[in-house]
Amino acid sequence: MRRLVGLAAGALALVLAACNNDCYNLAVNICECSSTQQGQQACQAAAALANGTAVLDGTTLSRCTQLLQTCDCRMLASGSYAAKVACGLARPDPNDVSLNPK
Fold first, then answer.
1. What is the Cα 38 distance to its own chain's centre?
2. Which domain, by its residues, includes 18?
3. 82 lies in a domain?
4. Of 7, 24, 68, 81, whose Cβ has the fewest other Cβ atoms within 10 Å?
């Protein structure tokens, strides 16, 4: 579960913005999946910090809105790649050039 919190914190830093939007809400939901109170607090602190510094475009915000519909703690607990994709913690296709701009 520590690995999940670390992964979530790193991914969340990339998708959060200056106001409470769906990306921030997604981050908070993922943080709530931590099995310990300490893990939840650490994750929420990272999400709050990133929330104040990241700049998001409309495409990213739309993606977060969609991910809110598919991400839940039960899936994340499975540790599966599909669950990570459903929560935005993994790329659906890591070879997709649009996800890796040069």
1. 18
2. 2-90
3. yes
4. 81
